[in-house]
Predict the structure.
Amino acid sequence: MGGTVSVDEGVHVVVVGGGFGGIAAGNQLKSYKIPFTLIDVKDAFHHNPGALRASVESGFAKKTFIPFKETFGENFKQGRVIDIELEEQAVVLESGEVVHFSHLILGTGSSGPFPGKFDEPVTMETAIQMYEDLVEKIRAAPRIVVVGGGSAGVEMAAEVITDYPAKEVTLVHSKIPLADDQLLPSVRQGLKEILLGKGVQLQLGQKVTNLRDLILNETQPDMRILTDKGLEITADLVICCTGIKVNSSAYSRAFHNQLAENGALLVNEHLQISGMENVYAIGDCADIKEPKMAYHAGLHAAVAVENIVRSLSKKSLKIYKPGSLSMLLSMGRDNGIGQLYGYHVGKFVVVQAKSKDLLVWKSWKEMGQTAPS
C-alpha cells in the first residue's frame, strides 16, 4: 500500500460487500486517502473461516465478528444494494438511498447455509447468539450428520468430532473424493484418513434425497436421513454444508450481459467487468478459474485498488494472474492438512499456521481493532 494519490473532486469509489475482499479494498483506499464508501447489509465483518469453530466452542463466535464502523467510520454505510444505475453511476439501496460513484468495486461474495456462512442482516450481537445457541444444540445431540464433503463439510465434521469424540458423527458426500477438486490427490486422501482416524463415519458417493424435508441446525431426536443409494441414517442433528451460491442480486440487472452461468461477473485480466473501465469485480463474484477463498479475495482487492490508482495517474494497469493453489484445511484445532503453492503440507505446518485460531487475529489486525479475549 502506498501514500496519498492526487485525485479530482469527482473521484469517489464505492465498494459493495464487506467480506474479505471488501475490507481489503477499503483499507487500501483509506491508505491512499481516496474518498470511498463501503456498503454492507450487516453491521460487522464476519471472519467466516472461524464459523465452524464458533459452532462447537462457546465464546469463539464473538472473535469472528468485527464492527465496520470502528474501522471505517463515516466511510461505512449499512444497507442492501438492490440495483446499479450505470448511466447515473450510482448504486441504489433498498431504503431508496442512492450513492454515486466514479469507480465501483463489486465484492458481494457468496451465500450458503448457516453455520458455514452467515448472511442474515441482523445485529452482531444476534449473530453471535445464534452461534452460541448452536453450540448448545451440538452439545445435546448424540448423533450428528454433516451433509456435504467440500472444504466446509470436512472442517465441520472435524470440529465436532475433535471436541466431542464420543459422538456419532457421519459425513455424507455426493462424490467419492473429499474437498476441492483442485487439491492434490494425496491431500484429499489425507483428509479422508484424518476423519476416519478421528472416528467420523464417511458415506461417500451418496446424495441426501430428503434434505428439504429435514430440520437443519436443530436438535430433534431420531431424524431419518435418506440417500440415493438406499442408505438410511438416524441422527439427532443435521448440519448442511452444501449449496454455496454467488450473490448476484445487486448487479444482475445492470450486468445481465456480463454474467457467467453461476452468476459471477465476467472480468478481464485487470479485474474490470467486461466492457467497463471503472467497474471491478473481486472475490467470489468474479469469474476467475480458482477456488473461492478469502486469500484470493484479498489479492483481487489489491489489484483492483492499484488499478484505480494507476488509472487516475494515466498509467498502464496491473494484470491479475491466478497462481498455484494454496489451501490449508483445519481439521480441528489439533490437526490439519493442505497445500502451499501446489505442494502438500502436513499437520505441523497447518496447525501452526491456521488450526489453532483459524487466523482470526489476522482479520482483527487488518481491521485495526483489538480482539476480545
Q: What stands out?
A: The longest helix spans residues 294-312. The mean pLDDT is 95.
